[in-house]
Structure formats: C-alpha cells, structure tokens
Backbone:
C-alpha cells in the first residue's frame, strides 16, 4: 500500500493508474478506522480498479468548542486495517498540506439543508465537510466516492454538493455497521466509559423501535418520535440533542414517514455526542 503524504504524490500515482485504464474509488475518513470504515473500503474494492482512502482529521469541520484536539488518532492501526482490506493508497496529509495558512475559500450550501439536524448545534460543520471533501475530489478525481449512512445528513449534503457543482463522481451510500449489541460503530465510542457504553445502547434501541413501528405501518412521525424519545429519556446518562424525521434528500422536517424519510437521533451520553438513524424503506 502506498502511503502518500503530499498532493503531488497522490496525483502522480493516480495519473499512472489512469494511464493503465483503471477506475478509482475514494473513501474519505478522519482515521481511527473501525469495521464501519472497512465496509466502505470493501465496497470500493469490489467496485473500483484502485482504492484510495484519505486519513485526515479536518480542522475546518470542528468548532473551537469541539473535540478536534482530543479526536482519536492511530495511523499505524489504520494502515494495518487498510492493508488487510486491500486499499491501494492512503492519503495522509498534514494540515499544512491541505490548507495554506491564509486559505479563505470555502464550499457551502447556502440554504436550510446544512442548518437542520446536526447543523443546529454544529453550525460550521457542513461547510468544513463540503470544503474538505471538494478538495479531496479535486486531488483524487475519483470515479466513485463512498460514504456511510451513519452520517446520513453528511451523505445527503455531499450528494447535493456533487449535483450543484457538477462533479462527475458517483456517490455510493453504504449501510450502518453495528457492534453485536446494536451500537453503531463510531470512532467516538472510544470516549465512553463502561457505564456510558451500556447507556449508549438507548440510541440503537430507539432506532430499532422506530423502524419496527414504520414496518408495522405507522406513518405519523409524531407518534414514532414520541416513542423513540420515551426510550432515550428513560436513560439517566442520556441527554437528547435531537430526535427528528426529515426528508432524506432535502433534510427538511417530515411529518409523515414515507419511503426515503430519514429518522435521526443525536444524543449526549455523558460528554460524548453520538448519532444514529434509519431510513424508511432502506438506503437508496
Ligand atoms: O465522515 C467523516 O469522517 C468526515 O466528515 C469526512 C467525510 C472524512 C470529511 O472530513
């Protein structure tokens, strides 16, 4: 596996692969990789000639009060996992390689979409995500890019950016990967102590109950969200940020749960903010 630390190295390798007629898949990550990321790499491996994974904790998507410094990092572990899953090149740039000291150009969706759900408490988050992902798209110029459904709002935002800016890149959404007890895999799960880890199960419990209600034919989002709220509120360590139903494409609020509607939760367990969701009728 090639470890590329500079944009120049990435471009040189991609150029060679292109001359050989190979397609390229990109999996953008912030490292500290787990089986959720591995599933994205596996999917890219199955669908593309060459697989590039970026491993970069992007400062522009963190607000000053967030966990940029504390965000877990382990590049050696990441390389081992990526090699096992057949990644061809990991792009591991420094902050200086990605952002010039006076960088002031951002990519931002200027409507309500990035202000919904996670955007309410993380107002600059999606501007940072769009900016770094658009830079990665320009650097790697992949045919396909792979994102997890766990960050469903991010997936919708990226699809929208790709459409609005006419990137000729196919965005592939991949299902949530869970621990055996249901907790959605996340790099932030490592922040949880044993008691919090147990308490965190209320997220998946609420998501599974919501899904069950939808499958049984309930379409009133009020009823579904109320039951999910009850499950999460019963856990003393949990503090709800939001429990919402939103159109899966626009992320605007949805009163009725029809196919494609996203039902998403964000909950603080102690100091750790976790997210989970389901999409009625499944991920498209
Ligand atoms: O989902 C993530 O890990 C990040 O938001 C992404 C897409 C790699 C951009 O930094």
Residues:
């Amino acid at each position: 596996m090639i470890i590329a630390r500079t944009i120049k190295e990435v471009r040189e390798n991609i150029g060679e692969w292109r001359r050989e007629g190979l397609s390229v898949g990109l999996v953008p990550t912030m490292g500290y990789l787990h089986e959720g990321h591995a599933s994205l790499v596996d999917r890219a491996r199955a669908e593309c000639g060459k697989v590039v994974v970026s491993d970069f904790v992007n400062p522009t998507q963190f607000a000053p009060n967030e966990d940029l410094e504390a965000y877990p990092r382990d590049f050696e572990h990441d390389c081992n996992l990526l090699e096992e899953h057949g990644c061809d090149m990991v792009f591991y740039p420094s902050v200086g390689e990605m952002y010039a000291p006076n960088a002031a150009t951002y990519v931002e969706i200027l409507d309500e979409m990035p202000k919904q759900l996670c955007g309410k408490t993380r107002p600059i988050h999606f501007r940072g995500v769009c900016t770094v992902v658009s830079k990665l798209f320009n650097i790697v110029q992949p045919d396909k890019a792979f994102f997890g459904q766990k960050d469903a709002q991010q997936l919708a935002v990226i699809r929208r950016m790709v459409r609005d800016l006419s990137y000729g890149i196919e965005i592939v959404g991949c299902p949530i990967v869970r621990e055996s007890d249901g907790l959605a895999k996340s790099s932030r799960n490592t922040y949880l102590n044993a008691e919090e880890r147990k308490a965190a199960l209320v997220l998946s419990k609420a998501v599974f109950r919501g899904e069950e209600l939808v499958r049984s034919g309930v379409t009133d989002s009020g009823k579904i969200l109320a039951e999910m709220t009850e499950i999460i509120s019963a856990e003393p360590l949990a503090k709800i940020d939001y429990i919402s139903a939103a159109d899966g494409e626009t992320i605007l609020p949805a009163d009725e749960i029809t196919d494609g509607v996203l039902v998403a939760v964000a909950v603080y367990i102690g100091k750790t903010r976790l997210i989970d969701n389901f999409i009625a009728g499944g991920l498209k």
In short: The chain is about 40% helix and 20% strand.
